[in-house]
Amino acid sequence: MLAAVLRDFNNLLLEDIPIPDPGPGEVLIQIQSCGFCATDFKAILGIRRNVDFPLVPGHEPAGIVAGIGSHVTHIKEGDDVIIQPSGYCGLCQYCRMGMTHYCQESYTTGGDGPDDVRPGSFSQYTLTGANTVYHKPASIDFDAACQTEPVSGAWKGIIHQSEMQVGDDVVIIGTGSIGVYCLMVAKAAGAGRLVAVDLSDYSLSTAKRLGATHTVNPKQVDAKQAIYDIMPDGPDLVVEAAGPIEAVKLMVSLLRRGTRWNVFGITTPEEFKLDGGLIHFLEARMDASFGTNPLAMQQAIRLMQRDLVDPKQVISHRFPLSEISQALDVMASTKRNKVIIHPNA
Ligand SMILES: [Zn+2]
Ligand SMILES: [Zn+2]
Prior knowledge:
The structure is a single chain. It contains 11 helices and 18 strands. It is of the alpha/beta class and about 350 residues long. The protein has 2 domains: about 1-145 and about 315-340, Alpha-Beta Complex (Quinone Oxidoreductase, Chain A, domain 1); about 150-290, NAD(P)-binding Rossmann-like Domain (Rossmann fold, 3-Layer(aba) Sandwich). The structure holds zinc ion (2 copies).
């Protein structure tokens, strides 16, 4: 089968590798669509260094069941499915408490986080555990369905962790990739004022089209001042979905009594300061969110099924796997939203 194999940083090769066989409790899926996440991009370029080679990237997949191992009963060959790229055992204390993203035996197919990184889905086939596979509703096509993982991450951060309420004034810092899904979830959940902050006017125009009430480009204005001009009392909820530490610092400079912050985008070990007494008297609250779990995946599927979040509004480019290097070039540009790879096109 054809797969994009990362042999070293900046060395992504198209290779012919064996199709794996599903063992007990495993499923083999022929991948129809796989989103290109910034996490993949950062691994390929060496912007994130926690990569063991070889790596087959790609962790936003949907496809068709091509084979099942023994003891797999909830799906059969030929079913259309969505893969949760964060695998879990279902038996450890965290899994049994419903927090499978804390699983002690966790693995990822092509993603970041767990030590156990298995081949991802920039590949014609992916092997994974049966408990990570969800039926794809017929009303959601493969390109939209493969976005279940990032949509679920947005739902988990905004709704489950930060408990956004209807009418909340929300600021999303970074609307280039996952942030735009945070924005769509916040819109669907009834945000009052919804401010998108991004360095790219292209991303901001997308955010505006998808429901941002205001946009702020820190390259052009003092972002903090611009946000207080929009909401003089400060925001109810601020989500840092950007990555750079500057975005986190901007987030914690935006506050009112009871403000909630979500450390959502940054994954690198960098520091920022907080004023203890101020935080105490404001009752400011900091949440964080990473990865996904079955609850978030099911909620994301429901949001898409009910047309509350439509990932196709965000997809700007599609490439067959054979053109992965062109896709990589597009990922490096600021004039793109979601890029989708079709491994079996
Ligand atoms: Zn991702
Ligand atoms: Zn577990």
